[in-house]
Design goal:
The chain contains eight helices and four strands, in the order H-H-H-E-H-E-H-E-H-E-H-H. The chain is α/β, with parallel strands linked by helices. The chain has two domains: 40 residues; 145 residues, TIM Barrel, CATH 3.20.20.70. A four-stranded parallel β-sheet has the order 1-2-3-4. Helix 4 links the parallel strand 1 and strand 2. Helix 6 crosses helix 8. The longest helix has 19 residues.
Length: 200
C-alpha cells in the first residue's frame, strides 16, 4: 500500500483506519516515505527550526517503583546518584545556564512516584523563582498528579507537564508491577483538564 499518493491529502487529514495501516507497516520503503513526508510537512508548517529544552535532574534515585526501563528505581542495582530535591538556587542557576545555551524551555524532573506535600510546595516556589530570575518557560516531569496539583502548577506558570505512558495497556504489567497503566492515564486526565499543560 502506498502511504499517500497526494501529500495535500495529509494536510486535510486521513482516516483512522488509513493512519493505523500506515503506522503498522513493515515495508521499509513505505516507512521511509512516511518519514520523508512527515519531514516535509513539519518544515512546511513550522519551518526548519527546533526548540531547545534544558532539563535538571532535581531529585535523583530513591524511587520505590519498579519500572524495568528506569535507573532511578531502588529495585535495581544501578550506580545512579541519589539525592533529595535540589536547592532552589542550584536549579535557578541551571535554568540560567540552559537559557544561555539557547534553550527556550526548562524542565524540572524528579524521580519517584510523586512529590510529598512539602516537596510540591517547594517545587511551586522553585517554579516562581526560575520564571522570575531565569526568565524562561518552565516544564515539569514529577510523577503522578491529581487535578488540584495540576491546577496549582498551571497557576504557578508551568507551561507543560511531561508524563509518559511508556507502552500499551496490554504490555504494561510486563514492565511495571508497582502501579498500573490506569494510574498513568488518571494523571494524564488530570493534566488534560487544561490542554496547554499536556506535554508534546
Amino acid at each position: 500500500m502506498k502511504f499517500c499518493d497526494d501529500e495535500t491529502m495529509i494536510d486535510d487529514g486521513i482516516s483512522y483506519e488509513r493512519a493505523m495501516a500506515c503506522i503498522q507497516s513493515e515495508d521499509e520503503k513505505e516507512i521511509q516515505e512516511m518519514m520523508a513526508i512527515a519531514g516535509r510537512l513539519t518544515r512546511r508548517h513550522h519551518g526548519n527550526r527546533a526548540d531547545l529544552c534544558g532539563i535538571v535532574n532535581a531529585k535523583s534515585g530513591l524511587c520505590p517503583e519498579d519500572c524495568a526501563f528506569c535507573a532511578q528505581s531502588v529495585k535495581f542495582p544501578t550506580q545512579v546518584r541519589r539525592y533529595p530535591l535540589l536547592d532552589p538556587e542550584m536549579i535557578v542557576a541551571k535554568a540560567r545556564e540552559a537559557k544561555k545555551r539557547g534553550a527556550c524551555e526548562f524542565c524540572i524532573v524528579t524521580s519517584g512516584r510523586s512529590l510529598t506535600d512539602e516537596e510540591f510546595k517547594q517545587l511551586l516556589e522553585i517554579v516562581a523563582a526560575v520564571r522570575k530570575r531565569a526568565v524562561i518557560q518552565v516544564d515539569v516531569s514529577i510523577g503522578f498528579l491529581d487535578y488540584p496539583r495540576a491546577r496549582q502548577l498551571k497557576e504557578a506558570g508551568v507551561t507543560r507537564v511531561n508524563h509518559n505512558v511508556q507502552t500499551s495497556s496490554g504490555f504494561y504489567s510486563r514492565i511495571v508491577r508497582t502501579h498500573t497503566y490506569g494510574e498513568r492515564i488518571k494523571t494524564l486526565t488530570a493534566i488534560r483538564e487544561d490542554e496547554r499543560l499536556v506535554s508534546r
